[in-house]
C-alpha cells in the first residue's frame, strides 16, 4: 500500500496530511506552528506528529505554501541587490534593499546602445554580497535583447553563487520600471521558497522516505 503526503506551510500553521493512494482517503492529518526564521523546524514538528507507519510508505510528496504571498503583503521579503542597466527612471522608488544604475542597455531594435559597465557591477556585487540574499537585474530594452542582463547574471554567479532574477525572464512587456520591480519582488521570494522546499527535502531524506516531490 502506498500513500501520498501533502505539506502546506502558511503564515501561522504548517499542515500535513497523508492520503491513501488506492481510494484517496485521508488517513492522518496534523498541524504545527510555522516557525520563523527556521521553517524546517515547523516541518519537522508536523511530520513527527504523523503516524510513522503510514509515513514510511509514502511515495509521493506534494508541497504548497503561502509564505511568499505573506512576505509580499507584509513587506518581509529577503534583502535584494538590484542592478539597473541603462535608462531606468531615477525618480521612482524600487523595492530593493539597495540598487545601482550602470551604463549599458539596448535600443528598440535590440542593438547595443552603450557598453555594459562590468567593472562597476563587479564592485557593487563585492560590496553587497555579505548581506544580499539574491539579486535582480533589469536592462533597458532587455526584452528586445537580454544580452546585458545575462552577462550581469554570469558576473554575479561567478562572485556569489546566489540566485539572480533577470527582468526578461519574467515579462516580455516593454515597461522598464514595471519589469525591474517585478524582477526585484521575485528575487525577494526565491530564498524563502528555497528554504521551505529544501527543508522538506532534507527532512524526508532523513526519515528514509524515497519519494517524488511535486
Give a structural overview.
The protein has 214 residues and is an alpha/beta fold. It folds into 2 domains: 3-73 and 193-213, 2-Layer Sandwich (Nucleotidyltransferase, domain 5); 74-187, Oxidized Rhodanese, domain 1 (3-Layer(aba) Sandwich), CATH 3.40.250. Helices cover 38% and strands 25% of the residues. The protein has helices at 39-49, 52-55, 67-74, 118-128, 147-159, 167-170, 176-206; strands spanning 3-9, 13-20, 26-33, 58-65, 80-85, 98-102, 134-139, 164-166, 212-213. The strands form 2 sheets. It has a 5-stranded mixed beta sheet with strand order 3-2-1-4-9. β1 and β2 form a beta hairpin. α4 (118-128) packs across α5 (147-159). The longest helix has 31 residues, at 176-206. The radius of gyration is 21 Å and the shape is elongated.
Question: Helix and strand layout, with pairings?
Answer:
Elements: E1 3-9, E2 13-20, E3 26-33, H1 39-49, H2 52-55, E4 58-65, H3 67-74, E5 80-85, E6 98-102, H4 118-128, E7 134-139, H5 147-159, E8 164-166, H6 167-170, H7 176-206, E9 212-213
Parallel strand pairs: 1-4, 4-9, 5-6, 5-7, 7-8
Antiparallel strand pairs: 1-2, 2-3
Helix pairs in contact: 1-7, 3-7, 4-5
CATH class of the largest domain: Alpha Beta
CATH topology call of the largest domain: Oxidized Rhodanese, domain 1
Shape: elongated
Widest sheet: strand order? Answer: 3-2-1-4-9
